[in-house]
Amino acid sequence: MHVSRSLLIASLVFATIASSAQGPAIRPVAHPPLPVAATPPMGWNSWNFFAGKVTDQDIRNAADQIVATGMKDAGYIYINIDDTWEAERDASGVLHTNSKFPDMKALADYVHSKGLKLGIYSGPGLKTCAGFAASLDHEAQDAQLYASWGIDYLKYDLCSFRRDEMAAKAPNDKAAQMRMMIAAYDKMGKALKEAGRPIVYSLCQYGWDSPWEWAPALGGNLWRTTGDVQANWGSIYNIINQQAGLAKYAGPGHWNDPDMLEVGNGRLTLAENRSHFSMWAMLAAPLLAGNDLPNMKPEIKAILTNSNVVAVDQDKLGRQGTHVYSDGEVDVWSRSLSGGAMAVAVLNAGSDRVASHPFHLNLAKLGLHGPQKGKDLWTSKDITLTENMPIELDSHDTLLVRIASPK
Length: 407
Ligand code: GLA
Prior knowledge:
Layout: H1 2-22, E1 42-45, H2 47-50, H3 56-68, H4 71-74, E2 78-80, E3 86-89, E4 95-97, H5 104-113, E5 117-122, H6 139-149, E6 153-157, H7 160-169, H8 174-195, E7 200-204, H9 211-214, E8 222-224, H10 233-242, E9 255-257, H11 270-282, E10 287-289, H12 298-304, H13 307-313, E11 322-327, E12 330-336, E13 342-348, E14 372-376, E15 382-385, E16 398-403
Parallel strand pairs: 1-2, 1-10, 2-5, 5-6, 6-7, 7-8, 8-9
Antiparallel strand pairs: 3-4, 11-12, 12-13, 13-16, 14-15, 14-16
C-alpha cells in the first residue's frame, strides 16, 4: 500500500519533470489523495450504546450531535454503523439494507453534508456476529456497493468465518486456519482497493495470530488487538496491559486498535473515564466514541473533547506509547511526540488513593535527567516533574503530562 502510493507520487512528480523538460509548459503537479488514517481514525460507532437497535435516525442524530457538541471540531469525523443494518441478498447477489436503514445512499449523503464520513460493518463469513448477512463470496460486489453508497470506513469482523470456514474446513490445523483467515482479509483488502474509493479498512478478529504482523501489508489501517471492550474498569485495564510490546507495529496509516471507547458508558467513574481516554491517547489508538450523544453529560464531553489529550493521540509522528515501568500498583508509560516532545502517563491502578501515597517518579527510568517542565493535560496547568514530588492519584486516575523539551 505504502509502496504503491510512493510509486504513484514518484510517477506524478516524474511526469511533471518530464513534461517540463520537453516543452515550456509546466503542468501543475497532480496531488494524489491523502492516505487514509494518517493519524488514528476518530469518530463514533453505534455498537457500544445501541448494539442491535441502531437505526438510520440514530445515525443522523449522532451526526447532528457530533457537530452540535463540538466533537467534530475536536476531530471526530467518522460516524460508523456497526452490525445489524443488513437484510438479504437478491437473485443477483446484491445485498440489501433492512427496514432500519431504508436508504443507505441518502444516509451517506446526509452524513457527508455535515462534513463527516460514514462507516459500515461486515465480515468475511456468511454471517456477522449478530447473525446478519456478511460478505463471504461477495467481497467485490459488497466493496463496490459500499463505494457506490459513499462509504468511507469498513469494520470487517471475523465472526462466523471462524466456525463455518476455518474450523469446519481445517479442523485441528490451526496454521491452515490462520492462513484462511489472512486470505479472507486480503480478499476484502483487494476488493476495497479495486472499488476505487478511499475506505479505511478496520480488521476485527480480536488479535488472533498477531494481526499487527500481517494486516498492514494487506491494506489494513487498523486491527483489533483484543476481544471486545466492556464498560467496566476491569475490561479497560486488562486491555491496556495487553498493549505492551505492540508499539513498534503502529504508525501513520496503520494502527493497533484496543477497541472502541466506553467513555461515558456503564458505571465508569470520572477518574476511570479520564484514564481510559488518557491511555487510548498514549497508545495512538483510534478514538471511536460509543456513548449516548444526545444525553452526554458535560463532564464526559469535556473528556472526549480535551484538545490537549486528543493532540497526544493524533500526534503526527504516530509513535505509540510504551509501558516503562510499574511500581506497586502504579504504572508509568511514555510516548514520544513530534518536535522532540514527550508525554508521560502515571496511572494508579490500585483500588485506593493510598496505592499512590507516596509515589515518586523515577525520572531516570524515563530517560530524563533532573526536573522537567511540562503541562498537566487534564488541568491545563504548568507542572514541573521532579523525583521528590509526591504524586497522589485517586483510584484508577491518571496524571498525564506533556513535556515540550525533555532533558
Ligand atoms: C463483535 C465485535 C464488536 C461488534 C459486534 C457486533 O463482537 O467485536 O465490536 O462489532 O461483533 O455484532
